[in-house]
Predict the structure.
Amino acid sequence: MKIGNLNIEGHTVLAPLAGITSLPFRRIVKRCGCSLVCSEMVSVKGLLYNSEKTFSLLQSDPEERPLSVQIFGSEPCEMAKAAAFIERQGMADIIDINFGCSVKKVVKTGAGVALMQNIANAEDILRAVREVISIPLTIKIRSGRDSSGTDAFRIAQMAQKCGVDAITFHPRTASQGFRGKADWTLIERLKPHLSIPLVGNGDIVSALDGAKMINQTGCDAVMVGRAALSNPFILSDIESLLAQNTDIADADRLSGKDSPVNSSKSLNESISGQYCKTRSSDEIFSVMKELLSDSVEYFGEATACKMMRSRLVWFVKGWPGCSTFRRDLSNIESMSQAIRLINEYQNSFSR
Ligand SMILES: Cc1cc2nc3c(=O)[nH]c(=O)nc-3n(C[C@H](O)[C@H](O)[C@H](O)COP(=O)(O)O)c2cc1C
């Protein structure tokens, strides 16, 4: 896929997830195999007011590049200033603008999904940003006010005219949050109206789902969010499924289901498992240790340990003894304590 002048090898993108897709997590997913990673959303106001916390979100590492940095805001001048600054500092390979966040605190400032309802301001922002940056510019949208997708189609076509280089579409309405299911048919309907790449997003829980989305909708790449939290290998599994030229419709029939949300995760995963490499528990434990040590380096030991109390367990959800492991992790205060617990749990599998 080519986004502007940038060649992206592959078809998978790690979604921006506020509070989660910080540098340590992005690095892990990149190492597991993923074409493009995105920062969590960065406040343009925070950047312009020199907020230390905002700046920390912009830390990057050559290993994870190319990197898409997502910004949010509502003032064209501020958005352009922030985007130009990020480009000048070499902090991103792509600037993405958030048109999809439905959190009240963001929407009431006119940012996020509110931009989809104010097309004039959205256009001013896109023109202002496009004028000052030369790296690719992308946007991430939702369906809009209602499930017809009219807002999305209007914004996407306007964005293309303004020189936006790719669009990510999460087909849920503004008020839906993460409830209900993503309507993939809207991705399929939008695709023929665009000459720039379209990235589909929403409810991919297995490698098979990822391949199915591309197969069914014709989108150029898929973005995965929540499923990567417990399975950072999902993106590389999608790539290998696509590379094998598997008959996706056939694999899908084998799963006996036709929708990503209705399908049982385990059944779906077992079908994906026929085509994708099975990971050993040792591989998973080594990812957990890498995430822990990278997080300690990035956030400091106290903060990282607090985060890891809930996050490490995501990787072993449903495994035997996982609830005891979860309970033990809930008190960790040091990296050595966490490593000891991981090793103990890991050893319980080799006995
Ligand atoms: C905890 C959390 C944080 C999120 N943060 C962002 C964000 O910063 N920017 C954004 O555009 N979308 C954000 N999203 C939406 C995701 O990028 C994605 O569109 C959504 O989760 C649907 O994809 P999935 O079904 O693969 O998770 C967030 C979602 C979650 C669950």
Observations:
- The first strand starts at residue 2 and ends at 3.
- Residues 15-18, 20, 40-41, 70, 98, 100-101, 140, 170, 178, 201-204, 224-227 surround flavin mononucleotide (CB under 6 Å).
- DSSP finds 17 helices and eleven strands in the chain.
- The chain has two domains: 2-275, 281-350.
